[in-house]
Design goal:
heterodimer; A: 408 residues; alpha/beta; Rossmann fold; 2 domains; 16 strands; B: 332 residues; 8 strands; 33% helix
């Protein structure tokens, strides 16, 4: 059913359609509206049987989800930013135990300085936690990814993080098509856990593993993540068949077929990028966009395939690895490794690969700035690492003050 | 109050032989069909108070629930010595997640069981004093205030023993640990620190709070049974001497646990909804010195010259407990 609604409310209703059995809630902006929406639904009795647990911290939220999932319940929670960091130990634990918990991360910057607005630093900090990470481009995709996430998680027995840009998506009112309960029930069977805490068949879960088997445990987790590279697109395909809409998958190429310049990005900025690319295509410029939906596991082969023949690649990143630069760039570079060699062999030139850090802590990414960035890219004048719209006056003033305070 | 008034004294011991009782009144441990939930072959030290306490507690919970039981364990000695992959000593459904989250994980299990309509299956969470009174404290308090249907058991050996005897919030004053060394003018753990977790648990006004020691195992078993008769958040704090950390012979575990209670340093009581309902009286009061002298972690108090001032301060702690909890029978 088509509805005009807030992103958080749409996600709350999408999660509700998945019949969660235990929901753990702790408030943090900009995620809070999601668990508020679910609170109303559970309290009304509409979701029965479902336990809504108001916990005392995000660490407890993930811990309650771990216990619930291990006992065979479909478990869900949502968080952002500092909350994700505060639960980190439990996030890794859920990953290691292979518990198919689904969590929404309403992406928000990490302090200090404290900042409640959007970037991808929070989810990026958990990229090695053993969770799958899917990034939504808009609120419709956020809805769809949650429904797919439970399927993927439970099929692989792995936890899934659905990442959606804080405020930009969570607080945006958009038209959303919410599926019918019957459709979701047909798509998402009841949770059948791989192993469960059962007094009639007692198992010990979470034993200590020493050097003699730890590598093997990690290897098996890796293998399961690689399997996700097959499961994620298959589930997206089944979703498209059932709901009549393309959502999810590993990567989302846009007007890339004959492109010589490509912008790679994740999340809500893809919409703006597509507008910019459409405009430039109108002028005959061969630019395209590669949206990455699955950041964990990283779809190296699909990225390489999508960027084949592209001469200039700009990775637009909503996070900064301080002292290094881009995070997604490293992945794209690794993906391009083969393509670079192929291109070099063909015409003697490897593609350019630039990092542009943009939208940190909620700074708007404007079409004007993106045009300027692409202007520089197509003329091959971009710096290897660019901070979009950096306020040089502010930086210089502060650098001057620091120099003045320096003791020689 | 103990289920059975003990009438038979044995020389040097307050324990009565099970064989003197009717079969139906005997302990779980005296039963041929005892479940051995924590079965033999685990790697606890000789004389480990925690292993003893955990076996009694979980076996008793097993009997009280007819085996419909899930156990959630915090990281610590108990977890490490019982489940080195690919072995496990647990004959119950058992989950270990992290050091500081066992009460919350237990809450999650209870929530799942409720959703599944399996409220006949009960949840016991357990951990050491570090996992309970320090790093797990926020989760413990959260589980209490929500009144989640979980019995949480703290096996208190008064320090971080698994990592090599470091001070915790349950370490008593003057005790030597690896991080409160017996040097300087005020050796050992400082006075005026630490927390009384059973009293804090009571402040949550949860249905049941009790303390026990491994010196009175029938009392411990009774308290587990009592706890399992109730629903909601319940807390059991069990004193479990650690030969390694307390520097006592393995054969002295029960003796020092008894001295802790008989000196008044460890009050044994029960409380329901925030009010004390019963107190285990001291049978033969002993000066704290007798308890302290038995343990190497207090050896610095008995050097040359001895620290009579510190011993007196610890006696004051015990005397205050005796007054506060009414640990001595007026008739004597």
């Amino acid at each position: 059913m088509l509805r005009q609604m807030e992103g958080s409310q749409a996600v709350a209703e999408a999660v509700a359609l998945c019949r969660p059995e235990v929901i753990c809630a702790y408030p943090i902006s900009p995620q809070t509206h999601i668990v508020e929406g679910l609170s109303r639904l559970v309290k009304s009795g509409a979701l029965a049987p479902c336990e809504y647990v108001n916990v005392e911290s995000e660490f407890a939220a993930m811990s309650v989800a771990i216990g619930a999932s291990a006992a065979g319940a479909r478990a869900y929670t949502a968080t952002s930013s500092q909350g994700l960091l505060y639960m980190t130990e439990a996030v890794y634990n859920a990953g290691g135990l292979g518990l198919p918990i689904v969590m929404t991360v309403a992406n928000r910057a990490l302090g200090a300085p404290i900042n409640i607005w959007n970037d991808h630093s929070d989810a990026m900090s958990q990229r090695d936690a053993g969770w799958l990470q899917l990034y939504a481009e808009d609120n419709q995709e956020a809805v769809d990814l949650h429904i797919q996430a439970f399927r993927i998680a439970e099929e692989l027995s792995l936890p899934v993080m659905v990442c959606m840009d804080g405020f930009v998506l969570t607080h945006a009112y958009e038209r959303v098509d919410l599926p019918e309960q019957r459709q979701v029930d047909d798509f998402l069977p009841p949770f059948a856990p791989r192993q469960v805490l059962d007094p009639n068949d007692p198992v010990s879960i979470g034993a200590m593993v020493g050097p003699e088997a730890f590598t093997e445990v990690r290897y098996l987790a890796h293998r399961r993540h690689l399997r996700a590279l097959e499961v994620i697109p298959r589930v997206a395909g089944e979703f498209a068949d059932a709901f009549g809409r393309e959502s999810g998958g590993l990567v989302r190429p846009y007007r890339l077929d004959d492109a010589d310049t490509a912008i790679v990005a994740m999340g809500s900025v893809l919409g703006t990028l597509k507008d910019v690319v459409d405009e430039r295509r109108g002028h005959g410029e061969r630019v395209g966009v590669l949206g990455i939906t699955a950041f964990r596991p990283f779809p190296f082969a699909e990225v390489r395939r999508a960027l084949r023949g592209v001469r200039r690649v700009v990775v637009l990143e909503r996070t900064l690895s301080v002292g290094v630069g881009g995070v997604v760039t490293d992945h794209v570079r690794a993906a391009l490794d083969g393509a670079m060699r192929e291109t070099s062999a063909a015409n003697g030139a490897a593609p350019y690969l630039w990092t542009v850090i943009a939208g940190l802590g909620g700074r708007p990414i404007t079409t004007a700035s993106l045009h300027e960035m692409i202007d520089r890219a197509v003329t091959e004048r971009l710096e290897p690492l660019t901070f979009l719209d950096l306020r040089r006056d502010l930086v210089e003033r502060e650098a001057h003050r620091e120099r003045a305070a320096e003791r020689v | 109050m103990p289920a059975q008034e003990i009438k038979f004294y044995q020389t040097g011991s307050l324990v009565v032989g099970n064989r003197l009782l009717d079969p139906e009144r005997r302990t779980v441990q005296a039963d041929m069909r005892r479940p051995n939930t924590l079965t033999s072959g685990h790697r606890a030290c000789q004389g480990c108070g925690e292993a003893l306490g955990a076996r009694w507690v979980v076996d008793a919970a097993h009997r009280a629930t007819g085996g419909r039981l899930v156990v959630v364990n915090a990281t610590g000695c108990l977890e490490v010595f019982s489940t080195p992959y690919p072995e496990t000593s647990w004959r119950v459904a058992w989950l270990h997640s992290l050091f500081g989250n066992a009460p919350a994980v237990a809450s999650g299990v209870a929530a799942a069981l409720k959703v599944k309509g399996r409220t006949d299956v009960r949840v016991v969470g357990q951990g050491g004093d570090g996992g309970t009174v320090d790093i797990g404290f926020a989760c413990l308090s959260g589980m209490f205030e929500r009144n989640d249907d979980v019995l949480f058991v703290c096996y208190d050996n008064q320090a971080y023993m698994n990592t090599g005897v470091q001070r915790s919030g349950a370490t008593p004053p003057a005790a030597r640990t690896a991080t409160t060394q017996a040097v300087g003018p005020e050796p050992g753990n400082p006075f005026g620190q630490g927390k009384n977790t059973p009293l804090i648990a009571m402040a949550h006004e949860i249905p049941y709070v009790a303390t026990a020691t491994v010196a009175d195992l029938r009392d411990l078993e009774y308290k587990v049974h009592r706890a399992m008769e109730l629903r909601g958040a319940r807390y059991l704090h069990v004193l479990v001497p650690c030969p390694l950390g307390w520097v006592t012979p393995s054969s002295d575990t029960i003796r020092v646990a008894r001295l802790a209670k008989e000196s008044g340093l460890f009050p044994v009581f029960e409380a329901e909804h925030g009010e004390i309902t019963s107190v285990s009286k001291i049978r033969r009061k002993v000066p704290v010195e007798e308890y302290l002298r038995a343990q190497g972690r207090f050896a610095h108090l008995f050097g040359d010259p001895p620290r009579a001032d510190v011993i007196a301060a610890l006696q004051e702690v015990a005397d205050r407990n005796i007054r506060r909890f009414g640990l001595l029978d007026e008739e004597g």
